[in-house]
DNA sequence: CACTTTCGTTGGATCGGTTCAAATTTTGAC
DNA sequence: GTCAAAATTTGAACCGATCCAACGAAAGTG
């Protein structure tokens, strides 16, 4: 019974068993850390004492202080913890981070919090050797917090506003978005709509280019710039392209489509700033029997695996997610100060959600 | 530049800034931990000193030792770390564990390792207040390791062999499997095949009831017992039902189906011990134009979300995964010793992968 | 038997904080 | 101006280990 949950009392320390076994604490420590250097007779005696007193081995809390290294990397986000398991992009990223960590024997600590106050505290008190910061949302706040810890850290996102001094790995959002826009214009599309990622913490709803230019989140801003720069080159009046800010979930995406398709002049092409948005959009369109790509084409952004099996499979801008994760872990573990910012290439992957304009 | 990666030298401790600010370390500590009790003038002076010396706040390593609680729970598995993000069952479980942790402000540490030696060390040195142990594979070894830490822990699995003393949360595998088997027999099926979860660490291939009875993993054994008990009640000769041991991945499942369908008397009903197995099986059957449920019916086990959107949607035994996660976290955090073992109910969820026997 | 190695053990210093009883200073009341 | 009460600050003790210089005993050498 006592085994179940060894109650509230576990005051048994290394020193206790040392005393019980009649040896110094130094020797007792050696029994666990370097058994080979202590005489067998003594070793057995100490182990027996440990066993008898229900000692669970040297407490890592103590060791840690002296050793210095935790041997774990923290992955932080401003979203709730379940984001790591719910979001397709995060999942792929985490899978590759995991692999890199496994390869080096490092552990992973998930750092997040329900509210901002908690978040700050959790970052300040995370037992890690460094941070990888997911910047999807509330990025700069997080980066600031992480930097205050004065530990090595890498932001997963290339915020063009950020100090050059913050290490970051990301993709060229402007170029990627440009690729998506060009693909659709080349297919003859002229009437566009944009389903945007969050612009600020303010919820969702229709927004404007001006709003987005002031966006808190540079990823959102850069992708829009990329879209519009390319559309402009094809003489499309971007001031008339509706932009709807979503929060990357079903509800806001559907609301966005309701709004966009309520107008007189409905788009034939949708630029979605994430695959998740695009996939939710696909569901909405299917429910209304709007053919994709017959009536409407749509291009996502990210390149998550779900896009390969959607109906229809999603044309998208693929980020080298796995590579990003690998580099991030490497940057933390081999923190030699040489690392700063790295921009990885993106690719247009044409699948079946985009086709010639119906007009 | 020095900001990027503050080099190898960070010998600035609380004591250093205390000296610099001309206060005792006790006061310096208070500035960070309970700012309100120190006079404003002093507080500012200490903060200024900290800023000037590049102090990143009290190191949690130090605090930890005194505080005792880490405020994080460890989730352990014998699989590689990426299992948490790749496996559908694990993902749902982790999502619910995350939610429970978020609600209480606890963090999550993922504990795993590439090899067994590493695993033992990682468990011994994990900085956590307790463990949730995924017992899918190598369960008993893990449970043993976790128990040696003498920390509260819960096994996610009701191994009937385990000591009554190990706290565990699981489902009644026998009853669940029975539900699956009865559903199919009631639809008129008489020719069955079983795609099993791992029986031992030995890889995959055809196996027998006798082998499974000796299985290392009780989940596998109990599910088979459940299937066969029910089939026997319908006068089906279970000794002729082929059993193929998979490792829960595409390759082994496909090999299993190759093997099973190579025989003269092909089954009309497949009992899959996990949804993941069932979903891979669905792919195999589709590729061979074997109609589901026209030619072959299949029932999975777990109730993962992917089963709802497969082609066709999967009939399965649903486990209350979210509830299990919640209870596990609760058991760790409110470790009052009252908890021991808990068996949760499973349900048959009939979707479109099962139908009347073709005969 | 004295003298150097080798082996195993000891105990103090240290890691970086938090805590709390006691000491000190400030404030308020008369 | 005096004294008690309130507000701050101090410094020692402690959290649980690891590390290492020094030491004692046993073994080896001449």
UniProtKB/TrEMBL annotation, chains A, B:
Q: Which organism is it from?
A: Rhizobium loti (Mesorhizobium loti)
**SUPFAM superfamilies cross-referenced by the UniProt entry:** lambda repressor-like DNA-binding domains, Periplasmic binding protein-like I
Identify the domain of life: Bacteria
Q: Which GO terms describe its molecular function?
A: DNA-binding transcription factor activity; transcription cis-regulatory region binding
Listed CDD domains: HTH_LacI (cd01392), PBP1_LacI-like (cd06279)
The cross-references to InterPro entries, in alphabetical order and at most eight, read: HTH_LacI (IPR000843), LacI/GalR-like_sensor (IPR046335), Lambda_DNA-bd_dom_sf (IPR010982), Peripla_BP_I (IPR028082)
**Pfam families from the xrefs?**
LacI, Peripla_BP_3
Q: What protein am I looking at? A: LacI family transcriptional regulator
Q: Which UniProt keywords apply?
A: DNA-binding, Transcription, Transcription regulation
Limits of the HTH lacI-type domain: 12-67
């Amino acid at each position: 019974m006592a085994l179940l949950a060894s109650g509230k009392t576990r005051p048994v320390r290394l020193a206790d068993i040392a005393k019980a076994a009649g040896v110094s604490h130094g020797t007792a420590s050696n029994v666990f850390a370097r058994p080979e250097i202590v005489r067998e007779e003594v070793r057995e005696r100490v182990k027996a004492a440990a066993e008898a007193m229900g000692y669970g081995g040297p407490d890592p809390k103590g060791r840690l202080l002296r050793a210095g290294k935790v041997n774990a990397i923290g992955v932080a986000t401003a979203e709730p913890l379940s984001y790591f398991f719910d979001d397709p992009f995060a999942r792929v990223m985490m899978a590759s981070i995991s692999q890199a960590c496994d390869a080096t024997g490092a552990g992973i600590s998930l750092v997040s919090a329900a509210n901002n106050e908690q978040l700050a505290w959790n970052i300040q008190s995370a037992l890690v050797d460094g941070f990888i910061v997911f910047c999807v949302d509330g990025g700069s706040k997080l980066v600031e917090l992480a930097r205050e810890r004065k530990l090595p850290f890498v932001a997963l996102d290339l915020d063009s506003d950020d100090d050059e001094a913050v290490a970051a790995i990301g993709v060229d959002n402007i170029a990627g978005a440009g690729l998506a826009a060009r693909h659709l214009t080349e297919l003859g599309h002229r009437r566009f709509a944009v389903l945007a990622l969050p612009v600020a913490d303010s919820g969702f709803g229709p927004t404007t280019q001006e709003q987005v230019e002031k966006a808190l989140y540079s990823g959102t801003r850069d992708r829009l710039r990329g879209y519009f720069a390319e559309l402009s080159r094809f003489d499309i009046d971007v001031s008339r392209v509706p932009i709807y800010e979503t929060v990357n979930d079903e509800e806001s995406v559907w609301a966005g489509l309701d709004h966009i398709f309520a107008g007189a002049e409905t788009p034939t092409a949708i630029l979605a700033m994430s695959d998740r948005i695009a996939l939710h959009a696909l569901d909405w369109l299917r429910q209304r029997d709007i053919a994709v790509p017959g009536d409407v084409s749509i291009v996502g952004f990210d390149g998550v695996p779900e896009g390969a099996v959607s109906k229809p499979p999603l044309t998208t801008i693929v980020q080298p997610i796995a590579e990003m994760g690998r580099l991030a872990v490497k940057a933390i573990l081999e923190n030699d100060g040489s690392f700063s910012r790295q921009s990885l290439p993106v690719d247009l992957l044409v699948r079946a959600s985009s086709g010639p304009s119906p007009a």
